Amino acid sequence: MELTSTLSRDLVLEVSKKLNEPQWLLEQRLAAWETFAKLPYPTTRTEEWKYTDITEVPFEGLPLEEPTDVPLRTREELPEAVQARIAQADLAGFVVFVGPQLVYAELPEELTRQGVVLTSLHEALKSHPKQVQGALFKTVNASDLVGSQKNRPENSKIPALGSALFTHGVFLYVPQGVEFSKPLGVFKYLGGNALSVGRTLIVSEANSQAVYIEEYISPTKVPASVNLSATELVLGSGARVRHAHIQTLGEGFYHFHRQRAHLGRDATLNDLVVNMGATISRAEVQSQMLGAGSYSEMLGLYFTAGNQHVDHYTLQHHVADHAYSDVLYKGAAKDRSRTVYAGLIKLEPGAQKTDAYQTNRNLLLSPDARADSVPQLEIGANDVKCSHGSSTAPVDAMQLFYLMSRGLPRHVGQQILVKAHLADVLTRIPIEPLRQHIEGIIEEKVKL
């Protein structure tokens, strides 16, 4: 059976049937489809999208990537770009997707014996149905709107499409008390010229510890292509998770990502989002502090060039008391590219003794580059510490002149200044191979 390419309720039914899904999941898909069908696409008249025009994005003009059964590959058969990352990344284990297909998986026997699961979402539906059903759609779903989004239902249009039509996904399960500090990795290689829809579900039980890195890779340039992704993180009491979402998709991709974490009592999430690729990308990253004493660190790095456009929205949603959150998003833009950041710290009345910070800093390397920054506070409690701030500035001409006067080429001088600008985010990344990889991407983009 081949999937039709027209977005419709019938297509949702086809996808679910092809993947042999349980009835409860089909019902969730259909509910998401109904939400998608009745809502308009966000426009520049929508407050949270006022700086990002998506009218040219071909959501409904591309074939949906078709899930099929394919044999697993050897390492040597993986795309060269993925092989290079595996060689550099120093991972405990990893899985590789090419399009919607899981083509390679490697997990240490030691972690398997402890009950750690890293597999495709649909395999997990068979092997761990209770864990999946108890958490899937718990954090990212069409009806769960908070903060400034609550009166603007069109913000759910694109995530609803992702929930209705995802063809592949990743499931990471870390049992209670299990700990590991060496990263597990997921590489998703997308060929383009299609609508790709994926989902990630991470469940970290009480007092567990995990490190997870997910990367999106593609050819340098592709025909118009759309990638929709969603990541759900459910952290039990005392759980500690370090998570990274890294996007280096090629020119021609439109990348839309929504991520939401639920943090239990004394849970800790260290999150990193890196957006360096795609023609247009938007990442919505949200942490909900549901348990007292929870801790959320949200870091962001981005660098745009040419006509790239990158848009970030962050939400620190404090529900419980004595919780801490810190957002630090920093980026640089050159040529005619544009960056957008909007962030909200939202405190519910019961979130007393909250400690929350939000910072966005932007560096402009060209006179035609642009950055828009909109930090916001919505405070419902009275015994808290909250602050926010943003800045946008061009490269200091005197600093660049000084470096060039010492014999450095212009692009090398800019590399030094950009890395200095991003240093306080980079130094918070304790995974040395990952930090080196990001620095290498920055160096290449400065040269362009």
TrEMBL record:
Signal peptide: none annotated. Residues 22-184 form the SUF system FeS cluster assembly SufBD N-terminal domain. Pfam families: SUFBD_core (PF01458), SufBD_N (PF19295). SUPFAM superfamilies: Stabilizer of iron transporter SufD. Residues 193-420 form the SUF system FeS cluster assembly SufBD core domain. GO terms for biological process: iron-sulfur cluster assembly. InterPro entries: Fe-S_cluster_assembly_SufBD, SUF_FeS_clus_asmbl_SufBD_core, SUF_FeS_clus_asmbl_SufBD_sf, SUF_FeS_clus_asmbl_SufD, SufBD_N. Belongs to the iron-sulfur cluster assembly SufBD family. This is FeS cluster assembly protein SufB. It comes from Calidithermus roseus.
